[in-house]
Backbone:
C-alpha cells in the first residue's frame, strides 16, 4: 500500500461486524451474500474468502464468469447464479458446481437436454416473477414449470425465489402484492421442506421484519452502502469502502487563470491549488467536476475544473496542504467524512453505482 499513489481501503473488521449484526436479525434464515460486480467494487475474491471464514451460508453472483472466478480461488460455499445463462454455458455451470436460476421453460429444457445427454444433474433455483418484470416466470406458469422440474431427474431443486421491485419504498402497494403472490404460489405447489425459499434483499430486511423465509440475499446492507438511511436496528452497520490518494502537485495560481480542460473554472483570486492523481479512468465520476469535495488534513476542499482521466485539481487557498498529504475522496479523515451517498447524490445516482464504477486501476487494500 505504501507505494500506491491512490488506492481503495476496505475495512474488513467493520465488514465482519456488519455480518454479525445482520445475522443477529436473521433468526433461522440462511445468509446469502451477493458478491456480484466484484463484490460491489470491494473485490470478489477477498470478500468471498472473508464470507467463507465468517460462515456465511451461500454466495450469489450474476453470471457464469463470476462463479468460475470464485471456484478457481478455491471458494467452497454454495454459489447461486442469479442471472440467466446461454446454452453453451450449461456445461461449465454444472462442472463448476454452480446453482443456476431457471427463469423459463426454454432454459429448463436446455438444461434437461444437456443433463440427459451427459447423464448429469443440475442444482437449480426456480425464479418466479411476482412483479419485478426482469426475469422469471409468472406464478401461474411457474406451477407447471415447478412440476416439470420435479418430474425430470435432471434437476435438484435447491430453491425457489422472487424479487421485490419497490422494497426501498416501505409503503409501496406493490410490496404486499408481490409478497402475497409469492406466498399464494408456494401454498399451491407445497414445495418440499428442503427447498430453500427466498425473497429478501437489503431493502426487504430493512423495511419488513417478518417472514424472511428460508434465506436472505444481501449485498448493500452487508457492505454498509444501502441507498437509504438505515433503520435504528442497523445503526451500527457502516460503510467499509474508502478511496484515498496523496497530493501529487502544489502550485500558486494568479487571479483569472483557467483550470483544466475547457476552462470551466477560472480563479477569482490568487489561489493555492493542488493536484490529485485520480480521475474518471479510475471510476471517479467526471460529474463531480466543480461540485465534488475531498478531505485533506481533516477539512473539506472543493474540486475545481473538469476531472480528467487521471487527475483533478482542488482549491486549498488559505490552508496548509502539501505534496504527499493524504487525500480522502470517500471515507473519513479526522472528524470529517465524505459518504458514498453524498457522492451518489451529486452524481444523481445511487450508492451501488458509485461503488461498482471503481475499476481495477485503484488497488484494493484490506485492513483487518
Ligand atoms: C443484487 C441482488 C440482490 C441483493 O440486493 P441488495 O440490495 O444489494 O441487498 C438480491 N437479489 C437479487 C436477485 C439481486 O440481483
Residues:
Amino acid at each position: 500500500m505504501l507505494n500506491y499513489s491512490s488506492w481503495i481501503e476496505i475495512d474488513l473488521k467493520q465488514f465482519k461486524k456488519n455480518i454479525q449484526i445482520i445475522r443477529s436479525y436473521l433468526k433461522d434464515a440462511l445468509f446469502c451474500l451477493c458478491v456480484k460486480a466484484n463484490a460491489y467494487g470491494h473485490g470478489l475474491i477477498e470478500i468471498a474468502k472473508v464470507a467463507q471464514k465468517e460462515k456465511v451460508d451461500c454466495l450469489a453472483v450474476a453470471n457464469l464468469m463470476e462463479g468460475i472466478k470464485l471456484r478457481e480461488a478455491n471458494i467452497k460455499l454454495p454459489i447461486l447464479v442469479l442471472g440467466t445463462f446461454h446454452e453453451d454455458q450449461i456445461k461449465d455451470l454444472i462442472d463448476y458446481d454452480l446453482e443456476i436460476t431457471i427463469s423459463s421453460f426454454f432454459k429448463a429444457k436446455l438444461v434437461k437436454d444437456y443433463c440427459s445427454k451427459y447423464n448429469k444433474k443440475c442444482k437449480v433455483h426456480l425464479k418466479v416473477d411476482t412483479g419485478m418484470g426482469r426475469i422469471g416466470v409468472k406464478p401461474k406458469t411457474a406451477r407447471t414449470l415447478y412440476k416439470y422440474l420435479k418430474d425430470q431427474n435432471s434437476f435438484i431443486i435447491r430453491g425457489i425465489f422472487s424479487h421485490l421491485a419497490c422494497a426501498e419504498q416501505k409503503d409501496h402497494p406493490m410490496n404486499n402484492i408481490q409478497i402475497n403472490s409469492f406466498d399464494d404460489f408456494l401454498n399451491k405447489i407445497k414445495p418440499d421442506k428442503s427447498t430453500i425459499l427466498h425473497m429478501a434483499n437489503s431493502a426487504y430486511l430493512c423495511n419488513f421484519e417478518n417472514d424472511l423465509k428460508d434465506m436472505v440475499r444481501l449485498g448493500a446492507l452487508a457492505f454498509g452502502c444501502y441507498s437509504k438511511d438505515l433503520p435504528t436496528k442497523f445503526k451500527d452497520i457502516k460503510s467499509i469502502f474508502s478511496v484515498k490518494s496523496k497530493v501529487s502537485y502544489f502550485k500558486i495560481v494568479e487571479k483569472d487563470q483557467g483550470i483544466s480542460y475547457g476552462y470551466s473554472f477560472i480563479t477569482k483570486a490568487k489561489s493555492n491549488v493542488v493536484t490529485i492523481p485520480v480521475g474518471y479512468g479510475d471510476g471517479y465520476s467526471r460529474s463531480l467536476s466543480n461540485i465534488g469535495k475531498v478531505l485533506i488534513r481533516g477539512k473539506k476542499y472543493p474540486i475545481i475544473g473538469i476531472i480528467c482521466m487521471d487527475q483533478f485539481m482542488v482549491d486549498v487557498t488559505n490552508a496548509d496542504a502539501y505534496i504527499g498529504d493524504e487525500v480522502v475522496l470517500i471515507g473519513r479523515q479526522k472528524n470529517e467524512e465524505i459518504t458514498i451517498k453524498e457522492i451518489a447524490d451529486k452524481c444523481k445516482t445511487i450508492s451501488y453505482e458509485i461503488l461498482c464504477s471503481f475499476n481495477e486501476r485503484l488497488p484494493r487494500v484490506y485492513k483487518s
Remarks:
- The pocket of pyridoxal-5'-phosphate is lined by residues 34, 36, 82, 163, 201-203, 217-221 (CB under 6 Å).
- Residues 5 and 348 are 28 Å apart (CA to CA).
- The chain has two domains: 12-223, 241-367.
- The chain has a mean pLDDT of 97.
